[in-house]
Design goal:
heterodimer, A: alpha/beta, 4-stranded mixed sheet, 22% strand, B: 478 residues, Fumarate Reductase Iron-sulfur Protein, Chain B, domain 2, 3 domains, 6-stranded parallel sheet
Chain lengths: 232, 478
């Protein structure tokens, strides 16, 4: 880089920018407050999250615990791929799942070219947009989100946050305790494109299917109500 | 990128002759506004959000020196190299230097209007690099040797048939004939996947830079930008100095406006924040990351009466709602940014001399300002540019004379009313039998395309005054 480009740009900005101390600038930003958040499609968090996942063209399963989760995962991969194999990040929460009970054969690590399905354990689920959030690291190689044909994501109901402001609150805790992850990824649907005549096609570059498994205490009617909300 | 904005009127006439493309533009102009409206419906506080984000962006631009410095410091702390470029030449050279330092031969590129502005692709290609656009729309137009017609959906001017023919002539398809759109997408996916896996350098844009933590935000539906950011061993983030926001939550607040206005979604499929190179705990990701931050007259704009234009978030809503853009399409504007935002940015980023036709490509209908999520007074800025065009004598002499005469007449209401009354009365007398005129002196621009209806006899002011008089009489009678 030419140092003169940097110094010239900053000198110019110094002339134009308003003069204030860093403290004053931060106070001014704080005074502007937070952004308004859209009203969720349902008051109950699980129901609203599921409705938004469905609107994002995700498919969903609801399970009460880890045993049901591995059964649902096993059923999904067998019905789509006639296989019991999947790739999952080195997430201790995933390593501790009772895989044998459902006959699922996970390989822990980074997805290799040709492997069709990967499972991630989301750090958070964002009710506002129906997005799941992962950050890169041992537990979440980026390739596992981006390269499989089907991306499955497990979300614990305890990790649901109402909106993106709350998501940042939780992410900032991670930044403070474990440093800044290389990538923070909000994922809200299968990879899609409408670049040819505006026609929506899934699997533009990344996963063609995006399957979310919500695990925990979920009200009995939440999924059927979510389906009714998301129905066109 | 080569500029052809000075021939806007000819470009527009040419565009209107392509009936098939005009039909597709009509369809987009119908559906895109509906999708935006549907996304905003039920979000009662959308306008409050718009005002909130506007205040945050104004604050960020007021203190740009501070926030850009904070971003740089945080980004360096995160392990990035941060470069600054005053203009396109410096920008392109910085990117090429990075590629050459790594002996790169292949570049996988995500969508970036900034690199269209600097002509980065052709610069890198001249140096022998294989640069592949990976956003499907960008890939299609790169293959076709064209430029984007829309800032969000760059290839919407092409039909599926044209894209099929393009793939048939440039891909090795064997016996496959790609009958459906899904087949075309799958074909591009396969070709590009291979390129992603081989590329040594990934280049992406940024929708925002976050000063407090040095992350950049990338918004896509295809996920191609994320593949560029994660697979090659070197990542270069290309953007401009004005994209900085103070806080992470400011970036996602802006996202709420951006995505609804651009594609009618609540969030795109992939919204990613990238902080730098691979960490010890990472099993993948680039080993070296760079930010290249371009000024290219942004600081001049910041110091001018057009500074609100820097608050543009590149959603494309003003294009989708503009009657001129819908009629003539993006290519007619002759440079990178089309539509209302482009008609302001092009003169500011290039020169008014080269592009003074663009601020005139406006009916002053105000739809763009109504839908702009950044609340930029686009019609006002376009008018100011027209004013500048006039005062710098860039328009034709007869136009300036006509405007001067009209201005003088408009400042003398009595004379204005009298002269229009005479003109309207004359047109009424001579045209009442036929009902319309097929030609009129000094109005051939109008009558060459359609007939001018003969006036009914009275001007608006005459009728208005008569009505006032009648009402006053009625009141007196009571």
């Amino acid at each position: 880089m030419s140092t003169s480009a940097r110094s010239e740009i900053f000198a110019r900005l110094r002339e134009i920018s308003r003069k204030a101390s860093a403290e004053r600038i931060h106070q001014d930003r704080q005074a502007l407050g937070s952004a308004p958040v859209p009203t969720p499609p349902a008051a109950e968090m699980c129901e609203a999250f599921l409705a938004n996942v469905l609107k994002n063209q995700g498919s969903v399963d609801c399970v009460a615990n880890r045993t049901e989760a591995v059964a649902a995962i096993g059923h999904y991969i067998y019905s789509h791929f006639r296989s019991h194999r999947l790739v999952a990040g080195n997430d201790p929460r995933l390593a501790a799942m009772p895989w044998r009970d459902a006959g699922v054969l996970p390989r822990f690590g980074r997805l290799e070219v040709g492997e069709p399905v990967a499972l991630s354990f989301a750090q958070l689920g964002v009710v506002e947009t129906g997005a799941v959030l992962t950050w890169t690291g041992k537990s979440n190689p980026a390739a596992n989100n981006l390269l499989p044909e089907h991306h499955m994501v497990l979300v614990d109901t305890a990790d649901l946050v109402p909106d993106m402001e709350h998501a940042w609150g939780r992410i900032k805790q991670e930044l403070e305790s474990n440093g800044r992850p290389r990538g923070i990824n909000f994922i809200a649907g299968p990879s899609s494109t409408a670049d040819i005549e505006g026609q929506l096609v899934y699997g533009a570059h990344g996963p063609r299917k995006w399957h979310v498994i919500l695990m925990g205490k979920i009200p009995a009617e939440a999924l059927s109500r979510a389906r009714a909300i998301a129905a066109p | 990128m080569e500029q052809r904005s000075d021939t806007f009127l000819d470009n527009a006439s040419e565009a209107l002759k392509n009936v098939e493309q005009a039909k597709r533009r009509d369809i987009i102009a119908t559906f895109a506004p509906l999708m935006r409206s549907a996304a905003i419906e039920g979000f009662d506080e959308f306008d409050t959000l718009r005002q909130h984000v506007k205040r945050v962006r104004e604050h960020a631009l007021d203190h740009l020196e501070y926030y850009l410095g904070q971003f740089e410091q945080q980004a360096v702390q995160n392990g990035n190299h941060v470069h600054f470029a005053r203009n396109s030449d410096e920008f392109n050279s910085v990117v090429l230097d990075i590629c050459q330092q790594h002996d790169a031969r292949r570049v996988a590129k995500g969508k970036s209007m900034v690199t269209e502005e600097t002509g980065l692709n052709s610069f890198l290609q001249r140096a022998g690099l294989e640069v592949m656009e990976t956003d499907l729309g960008e890939y299609i137009i790169q293959r076709a040797g064209e430029t984007p017609s829309h800032i969000v959906a760059p290839a919407l001017h092409k039909s599926a048939g044209e894209i099929r023919a393009l793939f048939q002539s440039t891909h090795d398809l064997g016996a496959r004939d790609l009958p459906e759109t899904v087949d075309l997408v799958a074909e591009a996916r396969e070709v590009l996947r291979e390129h992603f896996l081989k590329a040594e350098v990934g280049i992406i844009g940024a929708n925002a830079l976050v000063a407090e933590n040095g992350y950049s935000m990338l918004v896509t539906n295809e996920g191609n930008g994320d593949l560029c950011a994660n697979l090659p061993r070197v990542l270069i983030v290309c953007t401009t100095i004005d994209r900085v926001l103070p806080l992470a939550q400011d970036a996602t607040a802006m996202l709420r406006l951006l995505v609804r206005s651009a594609t009618g979604q609540a969030q795109t499929c992939y919204t990613s924040f990238y902080s730098g190179p691979r960490r010890d705990s990472d099993v993948d990701g680039p080993i070296e990351t760079h930010f290249v931050l371009l000024d290219n007259k942004r600081s001049d704009i910041l110091d001018s009466d057009y500074r609100e234009m820097l608050e543009c978030i590149r959603c494309g809503a003003c294009l989708n709602h503009c009657p001129i853009y819908s009629s003539v399409g993006g290519h007619a504007y002759g440079w990178v940014y089309p539509g209302p935002m482009g008609s302001i940015l092009t003169p500011l980023l290039t020169s008014l001399e080269q592009s003074h036709a663009l601020p005139n490509a406006c009916t002053s209908c105000g739809r763009c300002a109504e839908v702009c999520p950044a609340d930029i007074p686009l019609p006002d800025l376009l008018r100011d540019l027209r004013h500048e065009e006039n005062s710098r004598k860039l328009s034709a002499g007869r136009w300036r004379l006509g405007i001067k005469l009209h201005g003088w007449l408009a400042r003398h209401p009595k004379l204005y009313q009298l002269s229009t009354a005479i003109a309207i009365h004359t047109l009424h007398l001579f045209g009442r039998k036929r009902g319309s005129y097929s030609s009129l002196p000094m109005a051939s621009g109008w009558t060459s395309q359609r007939d001018f209806p003969a006036p009914q006899g009275k001007t608006f002011m005459q009728q208005y005054k008569a009505r006032l008089k009648r009402l006053a009489e009625q009141r007196n009678e009571h």
